[in-house]
C-alpha cells in the first residue's frame, strides 16, 4: 500500500480505496482477513481513528464485515460488488475525461473510436 | 474526564506570552499543538502541568482545579526539553524513581523499548548523547500509567530511523492502551496523519482548534492565470499566494463559493497540514 500524504485526497478515503483495490486485485481474497486497524496505523503512521473511518466506508458498502473478536474480513461477493460499482462509474470517471481531452486535442469522434479500437487490438501497447 | 483550559493568561515581565487561551483536551485522542517559535507552546504545556503558574485562568479536570492537586497532576505527564535528571544516576535507577513518583511503571514495555532503541539501562544519564536523552525521556513518557501525556518536541535530536520507530511505538501503545497524547513539534509533516485534532497557537492565542480532516477539507489552492485566479478568489479568505510569471496560486482557507462556475483555466487542488500551517501563521492572512 502506498499513501499520498500531499493532502490531495483525505487519508481515510485513501485507506478505503486502497483496501478496495486490494480486494479487486485479489490481494485480499473473499472470506480472508484484511490488515487490522492497529497494523495499518502503525505501519503508515496514521491515526487509528482515521483508519477506522476508512474501514467503516467499506463496511457501509458491504465489502468487509467485522467478525467479533477476530477482526475485519472481506465479504463473500465483494469482488462482484466492486466490479459493478466501477463499471457504472466508468462513464463518469473515464469516458467523459477522454472525450474532453480528445476535444482539446482536436480529435474527431471517428478518430477517437479508431484509437479505442487500436487499444483493444494491441491490448494497450 | 477531560482537561479544560479556560482563559489562561501569562506574562513574563511586560511580555504577554499567553492571552486568553481556552481549549478542551478529551480522553484517548492524539492532538497536535502547533505554533511558530515563541508562540507560547511550551509555556502553555508548563501551565497545564502546573510547573509554572498562570496570571489568570484555570486548568481543571472534571471541574476540579489541578493547581497543586497531586492526585490529578499524577494523571498528567509532560516530557520536555528540560533535563530534570542528575547526570550521575543510572537510567534503571531513574526508571525506579519514576515508578515511585507516579505509582506505577510498565517495566516490561520499558525493557522492550530499551532493546528496540538499543539503549543500555545501565548507563548513567550524563553519558547519553542528545538523541539518547530524548529517547530515554520518551521511554519514561510511554511507560508511566498516566491518562494524559504531553510531549514537547519529542523528537529532538532523533535520527530518521529512531523517529520512525518512535511513531510506530506511539501508535502501537496508543492502540493497545488508549490514552491522550498531545504532541508539540515543528516536524508537522511527520506527525500530520497521526494526530486527530490540532491546536494552532499564534501570538499567545488559539488560532485553530479543529479536527485535522475538517481543517484540511477547507483548505484549497487555486491555480491558473493571475487575473482569473484573483477574480475567482475575490471575497474568499486568502491566506497566501504564490506566483510564477503570470501563473498564480492563491491559498484559500474557508469555504469556496460553490455557486460560482469554475473557469476552465483554473485548477482547484488541496494542501497538506504543513503548507496550511505555514500560510496561516506567516502573517499573510486573517486566519479565522
UniProtKB/TrEMBL annotation, chain A:
Gene3D superfamilies: Winged helix-like DNA-binding domain superfamily/Winged helix DNA-binding domain. Pfam families: GntR. It comes from the Bacteria. GO terms for molecular function: DNA binding; DNA-binding transcription factor activity. Keywords: DNA-binding, Transcription, Transcription regulation. Residues 9-77 form the HTH gntR-type domain. PANTHER family: GNTR-FAMILY TRANSCRIPTIONAL REGULATOR, HTH-TYPE TRANSCRIPTIONAL REPRESSOR YTRA. This is DNA-binding transcriptional regulator YhcF, GntR family.
From TrEMBL, chain B:
It comes from the Bacteria. The keyword ATP-binding applies. Keywords: ATP-binding, Nucleotide-binding. GO terms for molecular function: ATP binding; ATP hydrolysis activity. InterPro entries: AAA+_ATPase, ABC_transporter-like_ATP-bd, P-loop_NTPase. Residues 3-228 form the ABC transporter domain. SMART domains: AAA. PANTHER family: ABC TRANSPORTER, ATP-BINDING PROTEIN, SKFA PEPTIDE EXPORT ATP-BINDING PROTEIN SKFE. This is ABC superfamily ATP binding cassette transporter, ABC protein. It comes from Pediococcus ethanolidurans.
